[in-house]
Write a structure and sequence with these properties.
Layout: E1 5-7, H1 9-22, E2 25-29, E3 40-43, E4 54-59, E5 62-66, H2 68-74, E6 77-85, E7 100-108, H3 111-115, E8 121-122
Parallel strand pairs: 1-6, 2-5
Antiparallel strand pairs: 2-3, 4-5, 4-8, 6-7
Pfam family, one: DUF779
Protein name: UDP-glucose 4-epimerase
InterPro entries: DUF779 (IPR008497)
Length: 124
């Protein structure tokens, strides 16, 4: 199976720090403007995906959800979650007070990967 999501080492370190402070986490990548253009990290249970949003994989054991409309556009792309120094738009994500912001790098799947893609989970 080809996975849809990977995480950089820098993001793994920050996720571990956030989980130690906040407990279980979840990630959400919206397709809107402002804070929705970057992945957001929340305490699990404080943000709820919409009907038909797609859970494309786990980030260090935590769900990574993508807005249903954004997923339709990016369904043929691999996501790599990274982190940068700086203040992301909106500031609602848990890493914002630390002067960090999550970012996704995208690349298109090759033909072999497309044939072996892991299924997504849809929110009901």
């Amino acid at each position: 199976m080809s996975n849809r999501l990977d995480t950089t080492e820098a993001a793994k370190v920050l996720i571990k720090e956030l989980a130690e402070k906040h407990g279980d986490l979840m990630f959400y990548q919206a397709g809107g403007c402002c804070e929705g253009t970057q992945p957001q990290c929340f305490e699990k249970g404080t943000f709820f995906p919409r009907t038909n949003d797609a859970m494309i994989g786990l980030v260090e054991g935590f769900e990574f959800w993508v807005d249903r409309d954004l997923f339709e556009y990016w369904q043929h792309a691999h996501f790599t979650l990274d982190v940068l120094d700086g203040f992301g738009p909106g500031g609602f994500s848990l890493e914002s007070p630390l002067g960090k912001t999550f970012k996704v790098h995208y690349r298109l799947f090759d033909e072999q990967e497309l044939k072996q893609l892991a299924p997504v989970i849809r929110n009901q």
